[in-house]
Design a protein that fits this description.
Layout lengths: L2 E6 L2 E9 L7 E6 L10 E5 L10 E2 L5 E3 L4 E11 L2 E11 L11 E4 L4 E4 L8 E3 L9 E4 L3 E3 L1 E3 L2 E2 L4 E6 L10 E5 L4 E3 L6 E6 L2 E2 L7 E3 L4 E10 L3 E15 L9 E3 L5 E4 L5 E6 L7 E4 L3 E9 L3 E11 L10 E4 L4 E4 L6 E7 L4 H4 L5 E4 L3 E9 L2 E12 L4 E2 L4 E4 L5 E3 L1 E2 L3 E4 L7 E3 L4 E9 L2 E12 L10 E2 L18 E9 L5 E5 L9 E2 L2 E2 L3 E11 L5 E10 L2
Parallel strand pairs: 9-16, 17-23, 24-29, 30-35, 37-43, 44-50
Antiparallel strand pairs: 1-2, 2-3, 3-6, 4-5, 4-7, 7-8, 10-12, 11-14, 13-16, 14-15, 18-21, 19-20, 19-22, 22-23, 25-27, 26-28, 28-29, 31-33, 32-34, 34-35, 36-39, 38-41, 40-42, 42-43, 45-46, 45-49, 47-48, 49-50
Length: 557
């Protein structure tokens, strides 16, 4: 990157022009670190040293893009005018043709180990792989799952490759069982990156391609055939049959949340029980649990058949109350929240507040006056304590961020940061988070016992380069924030196809509408938390080129 020295308000500064690619016929994004200090310049003048591009040789925004139609060296200049001073930066960009290269098909490997990718060996070239290893040679050692490519002299080669490591599977369907009539038993052969088929009495079960399979009367010999790319094909069988003896009611109870180190008894109460077998290998009616996990029991009934149930035991962890001393304005109310779930809460204030506050026994507590506030929260056998000092002052703080430029169609949320407990946006809404729409002024009016204040920001939108950009994580919990997985901003594309696979290779979602995103569900139910692989293709309607992209996304409900 080129650098220069300039003088601004009497202090010597050093800065540089940056760009994200050196590829010909690619919309290269330019920026400069000078904008880290100058957020709102009076004027910006870019010159890309490409007179053949005519009108597009210049730009007047902080982060423009430019497409060079021919390879070569181009002098780039930037002039930033602010407060009557001019800052000038210069660089020369060496634009090249992307190296044509094919990494080959995606690679699947069994167990952890080292493998290597080899890029074209070009003497004197600078290599930059898209991982976190800082490798600068044509050979990259791969130690973890990912989608890999390489830039040569700043320009990405024409291909990428997925490397997927799988654990050596251990397929165990469990013991043979005779189930009571009306019971349901699901067999589990799920494993990382597995492809599944199932057989019943030697015949393939149509449509059974998941890692789990519910059994049904009359049952028989079930077989799971699991193929893990790179590891091989694995098989296991279990005989699951059904008796005509009716199943009595059986439940281990609801899933349970425990405090740290709490010991929890689980009892299997079944009418006519003649034998017990837990997944812990215990054969008693009651077991004591001290670790989180899934616990299940097969109960033999009248020596005829079996019933089964499962319970999940979770532990809260060592979370503690974490109050901090704070100040509020006179006339305001502070709400303290010690919510740890169902429990007993004892609050104490010094000096005492009203009796109705001291006797609430609730997890929330309203503060009307300065003082020292303490709580003892008892949840199960666990006791939590904390306190804070509350003082009153005459200040009001309000902030919703700064002016921002966005791509057309890009989602953006403004957040209110204030110590006021009464505020409203320009449309009357009172949410802490506000999703912006079109360009314009967005403002919040806030007030409390300290007075009133207004905060405003200007949101402008621009047309961005058609480079498919997808987030690396989203939280589909219906809170209105980051609830779907889709392109961050639409652009000029056609023939769009997005497919998403789970860690077992199952297709969980696909769409041809880039305005429609995945909501984190599969077959109508929330997908498991974890990492999913996405593959996308689209045609750039500006360049007519068909593009392919791969990546990962983390789902956090």
């Amino acid at each position: 990157m080129g650098t220069c020295f300039f003088f601004f308000t009497g202090i010597a500064q050093k800065d540089s022009i940056t760009y994200n690619s050196t590829c010909v016929n690619y919309k290269i994004a330019f920026s400069a670190s000078v904008f880290d200090q100058i957020n709102f310049p009076d004027k910006v003048i870019w010159n890309f040293g490409d007179p053949g591009s005519g009108f597009y040789n210049n730009a007047g925004i902080k982060t423009p893009t430019h497409l060079y139609a021919s390879p070569g060296d181009y002098p780039v200049s930037l002039i930033v005018v602010t407060a009557g001073d001019s800052i000038k930066l210069y660089d020369t960009i060496h634009v090249i043709v992307p190296v044509p290269y094919n990494f080959g098909p995606d690679i699947y490997l069994c167990e952890k180990g080292d493998t290597s990718l080899v890029a074209p060996n070009i003497p004197g070239a600078v290599y930059q792989w898209n991982d976190d290893s800082l490798t600068s040679t044509p050979v990259l050692k791969i130690k973890k799952t990912g989608v890999y490519t390489v830039r040569i002299d700043g320009c990405a080669v024409t291909d990428s490759i997925g490397i997927f490591f799988s654990n050596l599977p251990e397929i165990k369907l469990g013991d043979d069982h005779v189930m009571c009539a009306g019971e349901t038993l699901t067999l589990n052969a799920a494993t990382q990156n597995g492809n599944y088929s199932w057989e019943l009495n030697g015949t393939v079960i149509p449509g059974a391609t998941d890692g789990q399979l519910p059994t049904a009367a009359p049952g028989g010999q079930y077989a799971a055939i699991v193929t893990v790319p790179g590891c091989g094909t694995f098989r296991d069988t279990a005989n699951i049959t059904y008796s005509s003896f009716a199943a009595p009611p059986f439940s281990l109870g609801p899933d349970t949340l425990l405090c740290p180190k709490e010991i929890f008894p689980i009892t299997a109460n079944v009418t006519g029980a003649s034998a017990y077998l837990w997944n812990t290998k215990e054969q008693t009616q009651t077991i004591e649990v001290s670790n989180p996990g899934l616990y299940w029991a097969f109960i033999q009934v009248s020596s005829q058949c079996e019933v089964v149930d499962t319970i999940e035991v979770m532990y809260r962890g060592n979370k503690n109350l974490d109050f901090h001393d704070t100040a509020i304005c006179k006339g305001s109310t502070l709400v303290l929240d010690a919510d740890f779930g169902n429990g007993i809460y004892n609050w104490v204030s010094d000096p005492p507040q009203r009796d109705d506050q001291n006797q609430t026994k609730q997890s929330t507590y309203y503060v009307y006056a300065p003082g020292l506030y303490s709580v003892v929260a008892q949840v199960g056998q666990c006791v939590y304590k904390d306190s804070l000092q509350v003082t009153f002052n005459d200040s009001l703080d309000l902030n919703i961020g700064r002016d921002t430029t966005l791509c057309i169609g890009e989602a953006f949320v403004l957040h209110v940061k204030t110590n006021a407990n009464d505020f409203a946006w320009q449309d009357g809404s009172m949410a802490l988070n506000y999703s912006v729409g079109d360009s314009g002024i967005y403002q919040v009016i806030a007030k409390n016992g300290c007075g009133a204040d207004t905060a405003a920001v200007h949101i402008s939108r621009k047309t961005c380069a058609c480079e498919l950009t997808l987030p690396n994580a989203f939280t589909p919990n219906n809170d209105g924030l980051n609830d779907s997985f889709r392109p961050l901003h639409p652009c000029n594309m056609s023939e769009y196809l997005l497919r998403i696979f789970d860690r077992y290779g199952t297709l969980v979602y696909q769409t041809t509408d880039f305005g429609h995103g995945w909501n984190g569900t599969y077959n109508g139910m929330p997908a498991d938390n974890g990492t999913f692989v996405w593959m996308a293709s689209y045609r750039n309607t500006d360049t007519k080129a068909l593009q392919f992209r791969k990546g990962f996304v983390i789902v956090l409900h």
